[in-house]
């Protein structure tokens, strides 16, 4: 016999995290378009929150649940935080000893060397964010999407590509701040995997 | 004893008492290079660009060193060859060499647009035998983080596939392509000594070195193709009788007793997965509709019969079992070990996965590809998918040449992830050959072949192509002391005709 169908009550939320192919989180059409399915409440799965330790709170933009891309970065950051608590590797020790003046000197050298004009559209970024974005754009350390910045630095260090120690210093300092997740995720990653992106298709 | 009609019931009785030889032990130390993390720790959100980056970053130094040795004093006319850092930095008219990953643009490679077409039309395009279209659409490019460079040249009569890391010497033409004069690859990596891992772990534990016994032989079989129906019962029975030493008589039994381990290299079961192929699904769709799970979908015969086959062998001989393309394991490389839940009887001889990831004496279900130490020698075994995919890129190339090239490029699966499905590695690419193996086995090939290749620093590798047992009825036996290879063929012979009594 076919399995018994539920006639009343809402379907229970799945225990596993699911991909949302519908619902508000993956909307591509403009909000003025008519909703396709009327049975929204029955089919509205939501991605369950990954359990997070008490150490930090996640400040994502509007929705409470992270997408799969973000979830992976969160997982990597958690692992990095746990690893830092247990042992501190020699490069991390060296990075913690880097002073602010040295970081500024590093940035000034980067601005002058090889560039004919200063960087534009970076007025409202902090020095740390500028340094991290420059690290993201360096192709020799691999792609910057889909990986947390700290993990990318460590991977580059392990492959002996000599990533600058000042970048690790900035990352470790930013980690002690409030916004741990967004600093680990590169800006390009956020743009590529953004939710609620309003596509302006035009008339 | 030899009766003219082959009848053993007539003739002289056997004089010698029954001789029960004992099997030599096999020193086994597997590696877990290709095992993926389980469950939620396995992430798929990363892109494959990480894999290509890792491959290039790890092989670049080795390739640069070899290229510098080879081309240090190369002069074309008056010009010396210079190394250029990025692939896009080559200049017209300047003789230079550059390191990058090869990308082959082929006309008939599987295209995502074909997948979309499948959804709209009824029939899928047939599976491709080869990706080469033979037209100008087949191009070769050299790629690194900065970009891609189209490559031409007569030396490209050598065969290259997507994913091998090379240094190319040449100059840029007027139309932007790079004319190649010579290429250089990383060649074989360092080969460990025999028993190196075992001895070093003993040294770390500060125990004295063991005196090693004489090693036995290694039997390799692949492509058993068990369907559970009766058409091949006799071959499986002959094989299990031979391996357990029950077959024939004294000299064969002594030979069989020297076999200390069996490797089953893939494709042991046919049509055993519950996931239907496209043709089967279309045939079913026109049939009755079933709601929920249809118990008729899963055919348990192949796994049952394979389980019985393993149980016949297992107390007598330790087995290393690799999954193949047709086995119920995951499709993407590296295929994870076949779960012991598939083998309810033979799993008594295997350590449960919750306790340990390896079984030294008994049934060891391992990944495909697999690396490990058998009797001290480093063995790299694959189920053959990597080689079959590579053969689709090239035309009329010997399997031994392919296997040799794969080792010299230091890549177990160069065409992954381009045309061979693969897990997106982000931290470390285990599909790179870091230690040169002593024996490289590829299962499920068309026929048996062997070759010994030599490396630049006295490395020696035995390459073995093992044929499918279902078709050829052949197993390969390697003597682990002398590295001699022999094959054991199973044949049926009709007895001579009985003379008519007149």
Q: Mind explaining what this structure looks like?
A:
The complex is a heterodimer of chains A (203) and B (502). With 203 residues, chain A is mainly alpha-helical. Chain A is built from 9 helices and no strands. Residues 37-62 of chain A have low confidence and may be disordered. Chain B folds into 2 domains: 49-185, Beta Barrel (OB fold (Dihydrolipoamide Acetyltransferase, E2P)), CATH 2.40.50; 215-489, Purple Acid Phosphatase, chain A, domain 2. In chain B, the strands form 4 sheets. A 6-stranded mixed β-sheet of chain B has the order 1-14-15-16-18-17. In chain B, strands 13-12-11-10-19-20 form a 6-stranded mixed β-sheet. In chain B, a hairpin with a 5-residue loop joins strand 17 (449-454) and strand 18 (460-467). The mean pLDDT of chain B is 85. Chain A binds chain B through residues 2-3, 68-69, 71-72, 75, 139-140, 142-143, 145-147, 151, 155, 159, 161, and chain B through 43, 45-47, 49-50, 53-54, 57-58, 145-146, 291-292, 426-427. Chain A: One of its GO terms (molecular function) is DNA-directed DNA polymerase activity. Chain A: This is DNA polymerase delta subunit 4.
Topology (elements, then pairings):
The complex is a heterodimer of chains A (203) and B (502).
Chain A: H1 40-43, H2 68-86, H3 90-96, H4 100-112, H5 127-137, H6 149-158, H7 165-175, H8 180-184, H9 187-192
Helix pairs in contact in A: 3-7, 5-7
Chain B: E1 28-30, H1 49-71, E2 75-76, E3 79-80, E4 82-83, E5 96-105, H2 112-120, E6 139-143, E7 148-152, E8 165-172, E9 178-185, H3 196-204, E10 217-221, H4 233-244, H5 250-257, E11 259-265, H6 278-285, H7 301-313, E12 319-322, E13 363-365, E14 370-374, E15 377-382, H8 385-391, H9 399-408, E16 439-445, E17 449-454, E18 460-467, H10 469-472, E19 474-479, E20 485-489
